[in-house]
Every structure is written in C-alpha cells, then in structure tokens.
Design brief:
Layout (H helix, E strand, L loop, with lengths): L3 E4 L8 E6 L5 E5 L12 H4 L15 E2 L2 E2 L2 H19 L4 E5 L5 H15 L4 E3 L6 H11 L8 H6 L2 E5 L3 H4 L1 H14 L2 E5 L12 E3 L6 H14 L5 H7 E2 L4 H6 L4 H8 L3 H13 L3 E5 L1 H4 L4 H14 L9 E4 L6 H7 L14 H11 L12 H9 L5 E5 L3 H4 L3 H10 L3 E5 L12 E4 L8 E4 L4 E5 L12 H14 L8 H14 L17 H5 L4 E2 L17 E2 L17 E6 L15 H4 L6 E4 L1 H7 L6 E5 L4 E8 L7 E5 L32 E7 L1
Parallel strand pairs: 6-7, 6-14, 8-9, 8-12, 9-10, 11-20, 12-13, 14-15, 15-16, 21-25, 22-24
Antiparallel strand pairs: 1-2, 2-3, 4-5, 4-16, 17-18, 18-19, 21-26, 22-25, 23-24, 23-26
Helix pairs in contact: 2-20, 3-15, 3-20, 3-21, 4-14, 8-11, 8-14, 17-19
The structure holds iron/sulfur cluster.
GO molecular function: 4 iron, 4 sulfur cluster binding; metal ion binding; molybdopterin cofactor binding; oxidoreductase activity
Organism: Sphingosinicella soli
Keywords: 4Fe-4S, Iron, Iron-sulfur, Metal-binding, Molybdenum, Nitrate assimilation, Oxidoreductase
C-alpha cells in the first residue's frame, strides 16, 4: 500500500507524517519531507506512532453500563437524557468537556450543537488547561486571538528567547529547527525557566528565575529597553495605545537590581540578557506552559507582548512573540469557538455576533453569554448543577487540578457520557454510556498547528468494530434531539465548508481569521489539501483587529510572591516527560517510549534531599493542601533549592502513585480561567 500523508497525533508543532499501513493494524511511520512544519523531521513520540495503532485496549462498541449496546440504543439514550435535563432544568444544566485531540470538524459540530441549538455555552475544552491565558492575552493586546508568528520566524531571528518552555522535550521538532538555525547562522538562545532542562544545555544563557516572577522580568526588560532608547516611538504613535501612566508605573521597582532581587537572578546574568535583547532586534520570544499555567498567566503573556509592541518587534520577519500550543488541534478548537469564552469563528458574545451566528445557523437558541470554564464546569458538576455531561476524547479524572474532586463529581453526576477511542480510562470508569470514537489513524479531517497552519489528518485504517468518527456521533445525537436538518453532513468536507463560510460571514473586514476562500472547496480538493497558514503575516502593516485598528499595551505589575510557608516549604511544579503524552492512553502502548522514563519521579535539589533525609531512589510522599501522592526521588541539581518537579502523565491505571493531578490547587487566572498548575506549596517526606 502506498504512503498516506497525515499529521502527528500529539503536540502543537503539527508535524506531517507519511504513514504506510503495514498489515492489519500496523504502520510504518516516516516524517513527511514536504510538510512545512517539520520537513521530514520527527521526534520520538511521532516516530513510534506505529506502535500505538493496534486494537489493544480499544473501545469497539457502544456500552451502556457494562453491557454492549447498539448505536441506535446508545445514541437514543444520550439524546433522551440530555433533552430531559434541558426540559426540566434549562440549557445550562448540561455541558460538554472536549479536547484539543478532536479534529476541527468534530469541534465545529460539538460547538454548534451546544451553543447554537441547546442554547448554552457550557462547552469547554482541555485546551483551557494549556493555552487559554495566551488566548486572553492576545485578545487584550491585539483585539483577536492571533498568534503573530510562524516557524520560519525562528530561522530568521538573531535571538530566540524561550520562556517557560522545555522545548527540547515538549516541542522537539521546533527545538531541532532552532538548533539547525543556530548552527547555520549563529542565532543566540536564551532560556528562562526555573529548571535547568535539556533545553538549557546548549543555550547561550539560562535564567533560572524564581517561579511566578515573569512579569517582573519582562517589566525589567522593558524598562531597560526604554532607558537604552530602544522603544520604537514611531510605531507606538502609529499603531499602539499605551495606557496613561504606563511608563511611570513601569519604572517602579524595574531597575536591574530590583528585578534581579525579585526574580532571584544574578544581576550579571540579567544584564547579559538585557544586552542580548538590545543587540538583536530580530527577536522571537517563544512561550509555553510555564507562562500560561499560572494564576497570573494572562498578565505574564501581556508582559511579553508589551516588550515586543514597545520595541516594534512584531509583524516583521524573525521579530515576534510566539505562543506555542500544546495539543495538535488546540488552535482548531480556538477557531471554531470550542472554548466556553468564545462563540464561534473567533467571535465573542456581543449581541451583534450572537444575532449573526443565529442567522447563519438558522436557530433562535444561540447562547448569549459565556459558559462555564473547565474548573468551574467540574465544580458545577460537583454541586449538582450539571445534570448531564458529555466528555469527548479526554481524561479529566486524571488531568484536571484537584482530580480527586473531579472523580467525586463524575461519580455523583446523574448522567455522564464518554466518547473515546480507549475502553478503560479513569474517566470512562465513571461513565453511564461509553461511545467508541475513531482514534488517530482512523480520523479524517483537519487540524491547525501553533503557527496557524491547517493540515489534513487522513485515515490509514478503516474504523474497527462499531467505531465511528466524533463528528458522526455528535450529529446523530443532534438529529435525535430534533435538529436533523441543521446537522446533515455526509462527510468531514461538508463541515469544513460550513466552517469556512462562517469565517467569512463573521468578518466585518477587520478580523484576521478568514478561511472563506475554502467555502466552496470540492471534496477532491479537500482530500488533496496541502498544509497552509491562514492570516498571512499578521500586523505587518501596523494594523490590529481592534475597533481602532491599534494594538494595546496592558499595564501589568508583578504579583506579590509568597514566601514558603512553614508547613509547605517546597514549591512544586508539574510538566511533561519527553516520550509521554498527556495521560499515556496512547504513548503508554509503546514499549520503546516507556524506556525513557519508566516511573514518575519527584525531582529535588541535593540540599533539599539532604535536609529531608532522602536518597536517590527513595520513595517520598508529596503532599499539598489539595492532595498527596507517592513518587520515587530523583536527586538533581537541575532544580532550584526549595523547588520540586513531578510529571503529569501517570494515572491509577498505570501506577499506585505518581498522581500529579491530585496535587495542584484549583486556583485559576482571573482573565483566562486557566488553572495555575505551577508553584503549588508542598511538603515532601520520606515514606
Ligand atoms: Fe509529533 Fe510534536 Fe513530535 Fe512533531 S514534535 S513528531 S507533532 S510530538
């Protein structure tokens, strides 16, 4: 069989893959040399995708409780229970919790059903945990959720600054591209991260800042730029609104020494960073979860964007702030409105937008206000306000903060539906109905990666058993709830065309998200679609999609950083391992990937280990005000003193300990609703 061009199942780099089915359920995987995201490169996770396409552990049939059911019976039950809840308690008594693993077409119909026909905006996504602070920061600064960069900017930059990103592990192919650019043209690399990760190994400078001090660092940098005469006054005058009193406020505590003290950095290192930034106008500042997963994530994003706006380092080759997305289709979810805080096609809930979408979808029921964001959504489930919940392609019983509360909430919810490709997850164990959804290698549709590039994901295999694509499952439920005419699609291309039409319909001429030239794309052209980026080179003309056409600098100040508490003396951070993905439902199937890290470790500085009487390999209890779990100790000087790191991947199904999800607090950023997974007060003791 010949190779099929598709995209990787995992991270937001969105690498192209050339997959050749090899026997029944096996595939030979290569990097797609033509794909502009990776030009043939792959990381370990993508390379071993072929090991994860077997039918081991798959959910192959609809299940009601533990009994196999027909599709008709299962879909009828889901439609009836949702309709009954809506009739008795109103549209806000039901909710969907979806995923950046869905394809754009799946996401579109889920959003249309909930916001357009059920009439609630209670659809949120696990992308809330990943990059919603970047979304909120973009909207505040640019007026629209626009990532202004593309990967080639990394190759055109003279300086790449990585903030809160272990790029070498979490976006490995981008790291390879950065390294190739460094070898070719001597690009400077600065890494800003409390941990000394693999990403720091070859960097020109690593700034191991105090967790949570990012705003102070960026404000200090901006104050330095102003003193050094680097503010682009002409660009500000033409294109950027600066709040009154901004510069005076910035000067407070933003001198080199104060910044170094707040960030717990050596002044000489900080000075070197400022000088590198000053010397290289072509700067890309790439940021990820270390910035977003904070209770001040949106301010941290805007602190970075402020520096780029003030110095005119935006809309130019190699000069941009760059939010890197975690999941393969978090960006597609943003485009369709898969977050509870947006309506559709990058629109918010302004009355004219609600009316516009109502006309387009032909429904009087469009939600008129934002819905519950992830943490609030599960609190509403716990409190009994949500009577029916549908979870698609994600495992919140492991991945949400305070995952123990999420489990209790699901156990008490009157009706829980899980559609997933995996039979048994910590979440599906609590479902009343399980629906077998297509997995990677069976799905057919589109995804959008971190640089706004839309690529096709194509099927290598026919769906096994009774498995169906998510879009089909959602539309069949919609039909049974009485909306068959509005959800009549024969194929993913039908949905994509409607999505493209809506993107034009919403466009008053200012928004950059517009894929309307695909509104009439033929089925053949959709099948053959080459990867492409929407939005061109955003802001190259100095115009921004705000009502005034001007960007906005946002006054942000450093929050007070709490001193360690006597009972909770350790600051705990969470993150990923190189070769695992999310809750390991897929990567856990690959023996080769398991070799990298076989168990979850708590990484601790040697002096902390000594003070706690811990040796390398000991078992230790990691406790926070939220919960506790057991990890094996790794003694390492890559951690700052007084800080610890644990990985997010392990679940009760794989291990009796290592449950990072039980540890973070449910505190969220007030602007984005993104949980603050980082900087949790903790204590660690020998078991
Ligand atoms: Fe897949 Fe990301 Fe690795 Fe590319 S970098 S192969 S998208 S996991």
């Amino acid at each position: 069989m010949s190779a099929i061009r598709t995209t990787c199942a995992y991270c937001g780099v969105g690498c192209g893959i050339s997959g050749t089915p090899n026997g029944e359920r096996d595939a030979e995987i290569m990097g797609d040399a033509e794909h502009p995201a990776n030009f043939g490169r792959l990381c370990s996770k993508g390379t071993h995708l072929g090991e994860t396409v077997s039918l081991e552990g798959r959910l192959l049939h609809p299940m009601i409780g533990n009994a196999r059911a027909s599709w008709d019976k299962a879909l009828g039950l889901v439609a009836r229970r949702f309709s009954e809840a809506i009739a008795r308690h109103g549209p806000d008594s039901v909710a969907f919790y979806v995923s950046g693993q869905l394809l754009t077409e799946d996401y579109y119909v889920a959003n249309k059903l909930m916001k357009g026909f059920i009439g609630s905006a209670n659809i949120d996504t696990n992308s809330r945990l990943c990059m919603s602070s970047a979304v909120a920061g973009h909207i505040r600064a640019f007026g629209e959720d626009i990532v202004p960069a593309q990967y080639e900017d990394l190759e055109q930059a003279d300086l790449v600054v990585l903030v809160g990103s272990n790029t070498a592990w979490c976006h490995p192919v981008l790291y390879q591209r950065i390294q190739a650019a460094r070898a070719a043209r001597g690009t400077k690399l600065v890494v800003i991260d409390p941990r000394r990760t693999e990403t720091c190994e070859d960097a020109d400078l690593h700034l191991p800042l105090r967790p949570g001090s990012d705003v102070a660092l960026m404000n200090g940098l901006l104050a330095h730029c102003r003193r050094a005469g680097l503010v682009d006054e002409a660009f500000l005058a033409a294109s950027v609104d600066v709040p009154e009193g901004f510069w005076d406020a910035l000067e407070q505590g933003s001198d080199l020494w104060s910044t170094a003290r707040t960030c717990d950095l050596a002044p000489a290192d900080l000075k070197r960073f400022f000088e590198l930034f000053a010397a290289h106008p072509r700067t890309v500042t790439l940021f990820s979860q270390g910035v977003n997963q904070s209770i001040r994530g949106t301010d941290q994003v805007n602190a970075i964007v402020n520096v780029h706006l003030a110095t005119g380092r935006i809309g130019k080759p190699g000069a941009v702030p760059f939010s890197i997305t975690g999941q393969p289709n978090a960006m597609g979810g943003r485009e369709v409105g898969g977050l509870a805080s947006t309506l559709a096609a990058h629109m918010d809930f302004l009355p004219e937008n609600v009316a516009r979408v109502a006309r387009f979808w032909g429904t009087p029921h469009v939600a008129a206000k934002p819905g519950l964001k992830a943490v609030d959504l599960f609190r509403a489930v716990r409190d009994g306000r949500i009577k029916a919940l549908w979870i698609m392609a994600t495992n919140p019983a492991v991945s949400m903060p305070d995952a123990g509360m999420v489990r209790e909430a699901l156990a008490a919810c009157p009706f829980v539906v899980v559609s997933d490709c995996i039979a048994d997850t910590d979440t599906s164990a609590l479902a009343h109905v399980r629906l077998p959804a297509a997995g990677w290698g069976e799905k057919d549709g589109t995804v959008t990666n971190s640089e706004r590039r839309i690529s096709r994901q194509r099927a290598l295999f026919a769906c096994p058993g009774d498995v169906r694509p998510d879009w089909w499952i959602i539309t069949e439920v919609a039909a049974r709830m009485g909306w068959k005419g509005a959800f009549h699609y024969a194929r993913p291309a039908d949905i994509y065309r409607e999505h493209a039409r809506l993107s034009t319909y919403q466009n008053g001429g200012t928004r950059l998200f517009d894929i309307g030239h695909h509104a009439a794309i033929g089925n053949g052209a959709y099948d053959a679609m080459e990867p492409w980026c929407w939005g061109g080179t955003p802001f190259a003309d100095g115009r921004f999609p705000t009502p005034s056409g001007r960007a906005r600098m946002i006054a942000v100040s450093q929050m007070e950083l709490q001193a360690p508490l006597p009972n909770w003396p350790i600051t705990l951070n969470t993150g990923r391992y190189r070769d695992q993905w999310h809750t390991m439902t897929r990567t856990g199937l690959s023996p080769k990937l398991a070799r990298h890290r076989q168990e979850p470790l708590v990484e601790l500085h040697p002096e902390d280990c000594a003070a706690l009487g811990l040796a390398d390999g000991d078992l230790a209890r990691v406790a926070t005000p939220q919960g506790e779990s057991v990890f094996r100790v790794e003694r390492t000087d890559t951690q700052r003193r007084g800080e610890a790191f644990v990985p997010i991947h392990w679940t009760d199904r794989q291990s009796t300990g290592g449950r990072a999800g039980l540890l973070p607090r449910t505190l969220v950023d007030p602007n984005s609703g993104q949980p603050g997974f980082k900087s949790t007060p903790a204590r660690i003791e020998k078991l």
